[in-house]
């Protein structure tokens, strides 16, 4: 009796106020979803899919990815109904190896992802298939060129010696608190530009003034991140309306184009005047000077190529260094062992009369010293395991395929894997996976193990493996050895290592330190 009365009343309401009824129904559904799913780390709600979870966690994306890895190694995430996109989140190392290496050709970056990299043009990083093959071949040739390889070490050493150490000496004398993350970003920017363009932009000057080119790279990265976390249709709509972050794109492109045009034309003039140059830009120009194919030698090709290398190298090296200093500050035992290694080498160099080392000048390490710094190398690998500079990777799917864990992937789907989560998985690294232990990188014979012995995806694996790995390790070792030997980096208490949401791992609030004199 009461039931039929309620039904009749509802029928009456829905006829008189259909909007109110629809709104109440949706409200009821949302409340039910909220109460059902509120304690879950992730779920696919009706209509909106997993978007509420993404929005809720976007500010702590990498920590969230590590939490997801504790409930399962793969999860099929569904986007909102409008433009529904399926995304397989995985941190199963078998899947990642299959995607990056075993069946590489079936998993290109794909048009959806490449669109988000618009500012990078058509460089090695932002193309697939034939164009990528061709560019990779050229890049392998450039990175294999003897003159270019030796200029990597010479230029990095020059930036450490002439720019980084004098700045740190100045900051030590000022006795002030500084953001080490910012200083290291300046170092990797100056050092990358020196190696790639043959010019040091001077961002390590004592005034620590801002640099327009470097700022445009930061802004471009933010746009790329934004496009990667927003549903595709949403950011495209914002782009057509020139709203939000998308409003910035034209200005960023203009700045990047202006700087690139300047560097390319002045390098061309230098080479015509017979100036000797072995930087990457000059190496590419020399490769192609006898070719008439303008698509390989034109300014647009050079602009995209060189910009891609600066993008790939600048933030990654700074990120690796920042997290290294953070971890070392929390692990004095490791710092002591690195210092022992550095002091033994220093004593050897002082005894070597050809090195002409003066007792009161800051100690500089050279390329030939780096090979013997094995504990330092292990500590760098280990810190990038816990804090990989590129924490996420994304791939598309060409043909339907079954991944090693049984998940079926189809064209149109996206696959994202978290290198951050995989670096912290007990099933890969053992019970002490969260400890910073460079010792895990040594075999029973005391020799440094190669990273291929581990499920270590920090530099990618397979055909698209990072081409700048050796360059990065050289830049990092030279900087760490010079900083630690000459200064004591005092990391201020009360800071946390929360990464900011970005395509490159960076600390949300920087790394505040005091630079002090190192007492021998
Ligand atoms: C610690 C420093 C670095 C780390 C952790 C790192 C990591 C990576 C990763 C994960 C990828 C694959 C990205 C993807 O497929 O989307 C990559 C690709 C690449 N890296 Fe690095 N990288 C570092 C430094 C550098 C440096 C210094 C350079 C040279 C300037 C460089 C040049 C490249 C290039 C050109 C690619 C694209 C390769 C291709 O697609 O064939 N990287 N790197």
Question: Features of this protein?
Answer:
single chain; about 525 residues; alpha+beta; four-stranded mixed β-sheet; three-stranded antiparallel β-sheet; 21 helices; 9 strands; about 55% helix; globular; binds protoporphyrin IX containing FE; Cyt_P450_sf; oxidoreductase
Protein described:
This protein is an alpha+beta fold. Helices cover 56% and strands 7% of the residues. The chain contains 21 helices and nine strands. The chain has helices spanning 2-16, 18-37, 51-57, 61-71, 93-102, 111-116, 129-144, 146-174, 180-196, 212-229, 232-241, 249-272, 280-288, 294-297, 299-330, 332-351, 367-370, 374-386, 419-422, 426-429, 469-486, and strands spanning 74-78, 86-90, 177-179, 392-396, 401-402, 408-409, 414-418, 487-491, 512-517. It has a four-stranded mixed beta sheet. A three-stranded antiparallel beta sheet has the order 3-9-8. Strands 5-6 form a two-stranded antiparallel sheet. A hairpin with a 7-residue loop joins strand 1 (74-78) and strand 2 (86-90). Helix 8 packs parallel to helix 21. The longest helix is centred in the middle third of the chain and has 32 residues, at 299-330.
């Amino acid at each position: 009796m009461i039931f039929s009365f309620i039904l009749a009343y509802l029928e009456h309401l829905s006829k008189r106020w259909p909007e109110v009824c629809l709104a109440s129904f949706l409200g009821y559904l949302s409340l039910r979803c909220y109460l059902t799913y509120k304690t879950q780390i992730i779920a696919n709600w009706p209509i909106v899919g997993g978007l509420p979870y993404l929005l809720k966690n976007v500010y702590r994306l990498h920590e969230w990815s590590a939490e997801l890895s504790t409930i399962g190694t793969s999860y099929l995430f569904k986007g909102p109904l409008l433009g529904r996109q399926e995304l397989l989140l995985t941190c199963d190392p078998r899947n990642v190896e299959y995607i990056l290496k075993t069946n590489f050709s079936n998993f290109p970056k794909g048009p959806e992802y490449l669109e988000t990299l618009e500012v990078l043009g058509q460089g090695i990083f932002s193309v697939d298939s034939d164009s990528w093959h061709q560019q990779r071949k050229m890049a392998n040739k450039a990175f294999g060129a003897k003159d270019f390889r030796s200029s990597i070490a010479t230029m990095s050493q020059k930036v450490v010696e002439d720019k980084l150490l004098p700045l740190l000496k100045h900051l030590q004398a000022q006795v002030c608190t500084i953001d080490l993350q910012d200083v290291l970003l300046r170092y990797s920017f100056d050092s990358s530009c020196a190696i790639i363009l043959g010019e040091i932009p001077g961002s390590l000057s004592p005034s620590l003034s801002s640099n327009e080119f470097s700022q445009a790279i930061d802004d471009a990265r933010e746009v790329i991140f934004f496009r990667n976390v927003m549903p595709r249709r949403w950011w495209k709509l914002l782009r057509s309306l020139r709203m939000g972050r998308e409003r910035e794109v034209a200005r960023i492109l203009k700045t990047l184009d202006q700087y690139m045009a300047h560097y390319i034309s002045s390098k061309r003039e230098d080479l015509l005047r017979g100036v000797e140059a072995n930087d990457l830009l000059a190496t590419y120009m020399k490769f192609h000077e006898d070719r008439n194919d303008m698509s390989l030698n034109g300014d647009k090709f050079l602009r995209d190529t060189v910009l891609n290398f600066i993008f790939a190298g600048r933030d990654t090296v700074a990120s690796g260094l920042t997290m290294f200093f953070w971890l070392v500050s929390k692990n004095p035992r490791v710092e002591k062992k690195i210092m022992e290694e550095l002091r033994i080498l220093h004593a050897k160099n002082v005894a070597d009369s050809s090195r002409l080392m003066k007792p009161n000048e800051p100690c500089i390490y050279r390329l030939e010293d780096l090979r013997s710094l094995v504990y330092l190398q292990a500590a760098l690998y280990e810190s990038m395991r816990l804090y990989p500079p590129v924490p996420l990777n994304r791939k598309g799917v060409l043909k339907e395929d079954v991944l090693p864990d049984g998940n079926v992937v189809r064209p149109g789907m996206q696959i994202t894997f978290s290198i951050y989560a995989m670096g912290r998985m007990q099933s890969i690294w053992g019970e002490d996976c969260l400890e910073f232990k460079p010792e895990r990188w040594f075999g029973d014979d005391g020799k440094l193990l190669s990273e291929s012995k581990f499920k270590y995806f920090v530099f990618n694996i397979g055909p698209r493996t990072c081409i700048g790995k050796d360059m990065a390790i050289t830049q990092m070792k030279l900087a760490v050895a010079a900083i630690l030997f000459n200064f004591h980096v005092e990391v201020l208490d009360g800071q946390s290592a929360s990464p900011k949401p970005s395509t490159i791992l960076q600390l949300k609030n920087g790394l505040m330190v005091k630079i002090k004199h190192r007492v021998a």
